[in-house]
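Hello,

Following up on my earlier ticket. Below are the two sequence lines again, exactly as submitted.
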Amino acid sequence: MKLLLAHTRAELLALLRSPGFLIPTMLFPSMFFLMFAAPNLEGTAAANYTTGSFMAFAVFTVTFFQFGVGTASERDNPWSSYVRTLPAPPLYRNLAKVLTAALLALLAALALVITSSLTTPLNVPLSRWPRIFLALSAGGVMMGMLGTALAFLVSPKAALPLANLIYLPLAYMGGMWMPPRFLPELVQKLSPYLPTRQWMELVWPAIGGSGWDASHWLAVAGFTLAFALLAGWAQRRDERIRF
Amino acid sequence: MIARLENVHKRLGRVQALAGVSLEVREGELLALLGPNGAGKTTLVSLLVGLRAPDRGRVELGGRDPRRPEARRILGVTPQSTGFPPNLRVVEVVELVRAHYPRPLATAALLERFGLSGLATRSVSSLSGGQARRLAVALAFAGNPRLAVLDEPTTGLDVGSRRALWSQIRRFREEGGTVLLTTHYLEEAEELADRVVVLARGRVISSGSPAEIKRRVGLRRVRLRAERPPELPAAEKIERDGERFTIWTHDSDALVRQLVNSGLEFSDLEVTPVSLEEAFLAVLSEEVKS
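Thanks for your patience. The regenerated structure is below:
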């Protein structure tokens, strides 16, 4: 517990002292929301639905980049090697990273809710928030795994451009920026096969107050497992090369 | 005995970094691991501190596998000074490391010992090279370990800082600590070590007291101009370039005496110390092969 606290503290301090990374990451989804979504939201139902989509987008941004680009840049850092000589299993440091990313994702989602409530007729009953939280967390874990896999698969330099190349289409085609029925026909056909779309199928019912279809939970769990296996394999491959 | 390697082999990519190394670190001693760059020192250390597993052979730390976290409770290591987490302050880095040990040194005492007291609230990214190096070495002692592994602790330090660091290493020993130190300065091994092990091309080629090792690997280079080659029993190797001769020797005093007594006409006599790297290239590499 002392170790978890020490590592979390170090991660948070480092993050707070790099506002150049922190503020854009947190505010980018809200800005996007203000420019492209908010002006067209007339009724409460549409506002709720779209706010849910963009909250998922905010969580996606934080978890995917925090684990994708963050982990990639650490692979090269001699400090990571040093920490592995300290008498503690890597669990504490990894858990500290998860906690930090979770906190950051929560703040980014909160920033979006505030932005939305100031500019749209957003109105989500309090009783729906536990399910929203659950759905957002599940997707955050899934995307953190995808980010980790990416970080270990490609060179640290390639991680950032490649992350952008994956992230923007996944968000767009998954229906995070506009409802799927407004997407081009081809994209509409592809969309259900994407992890982001399966995730949205959990977020939308949660924010709209309707029931979940178990198949989407299965799909998200399946994608999470697949990404976790890929990340584990990539990490072992990376260790074989370097150690 | 606090640490041990037994017939350890390790290949890194296409390089056989260690080829059958056996080594014991005894409780309370200061063992210097000496060798030119690329000898396998860093690989050996990485096995001992649990970063890598050997391909063959055994590595033990306090009787246990150093890959297990609890085995490393007796261990303190220097990180590379170029790699601190950039946004943390000196005192925060020290606290983070201390949190891993059951009975760490007090932060204020540690900072004071290594001349870092005035820098406690400075960001690690703003430290000078020498200050970062001192912080790196201080971290090896933060956990109050039984064994401190110092990988090239004084590389890049000025003479004053080097001496100050040496006195801290001695103090740790007086309190009963064991030190494994890697270096490519013969002088540093001579100053601090009880025992020296020389590593070259992944093998132990020599071990003994600093004085013995100095006799073996401490070479001098004698240059002179003469019309014909001198006959010198004290020479290890003589190179000729026209009238210029370069002679490698373990004992330049004896060599100069022999030179004078030989009656040979010579000029431009010059005696210079030889770095370990040069000594290996000139003479020792041939001995290793044979």
